[in-house]
Sequence to fold (413 residues):
Amino acid sequence: MKKILGKKFWISMLIFGLMGQVAWVVENMYFNVFIYKMFHASAADISAMVMASAVTAAVTTIIMGAVSDKVGRRKAFMSVGYIIWGISIISFAYIKSIMLTIVMDCVMTYFGSTANDAAYNAWLTDRGDSTNRGKIEGVNSMMPLIAILVVFGGFMSFNLDTHEAWTTIYYIIGIATTIIGILGWFLIEEAPGLRPVSESLGETLAYSFRPSVAMANSKLYLTLLNFAIFGTSIQIFMPYLLIYYEKTLGMDNYVLIFAPAIILAAVITVFYGRLYDRWGFMKSVMPVCGMLIAGYLILYFATSTAPVFIGSLLMMAGYLTGMSVFGAMIRDNIPEGRSGQFQGVRIIGQVFIPGLIGPAVGAWVLRDAAMIVNSDGTESFLPDRGIWTAALVVVVILAVVLVLTMKDRKREN
Fold:
């Protein structure tokens, strides 16, 4: 029987999902630009920041996801977490160094991962079931693209070469995130069947890491393995993407090229999530690999507007539809009543492993990147097209591993 989701669910999902992704877009795509422009950060600096954030996100989600299961509540963690998350974003307006940016990024990530990675994702799992999971993930996976569009559009009016612009940006995003947290007290409804788990907190924390649990839920853990490979491919280029468009390709108007690609990719993602409900995992994930491969190949050779647009569309569509399909498969295989405890292993596959390996590979590929001299006499690196080659190799590995690990594990509809 199909589970009916009310208006409050969809409103809560949309505002929490979108605002959470706006905050993550600012961190994942623009913190790199911030330290590149304000402090002339190197590829190694950017890699270190992404890796530190990934470790923080994983540890936080493991602990706070289990804690939310232990107390049997998601609402408080989401609302309070978003409020403090917003305040921590404002603090970046006063940062003056790369090191302090990395430290505060970890602090911000703690509150963001508590509210979003742990509580929000567990709440989505609690509220859905196998009849609507693909629909929920299709909408949820569209949020990063819409967030990118919102952020890109908003940032067009700012001169990102000035510290004053960044101060205004951090205040706007921080205040908006805090307001969403306050609204959550009035909008969020807990899943009717959610109850505190009976185990001790230590047992709750350790549950998803037990070998016996992994064996009993092998489909889930194999999906997470493949998700980690998928994410690694994305994280090879993502920290350097905007710098590549603006500095390497010389496209000062990259937002006008990227925004239409984002809109089309968002539409594709909404409908693609429903294909998972109809086709199952393998038939819907392999075309994702195809879109990424095609996008990477085009972007490797592209230097002008039209090819960059087409390559960006395929790359972003592959990225977001992949997030949708993997997200639905993971949620479908999380044991009922333990969604908080499994957010830790989910974040290891989604953030921790990709966040450690991907940026490190990207930094290694760019170790001999060309340098440019800034107006103040300092030097900055130029990301080159080698990031697309490395990302493509990882996607090919993903396709092979998917066939080897998932071919006999088709999703039951």
Remarks:
- The chain has a mean pLDDT of 85.
- The radius of gyration is 20 Å.
- DSSP finds 15 helices and two strands in the chain.
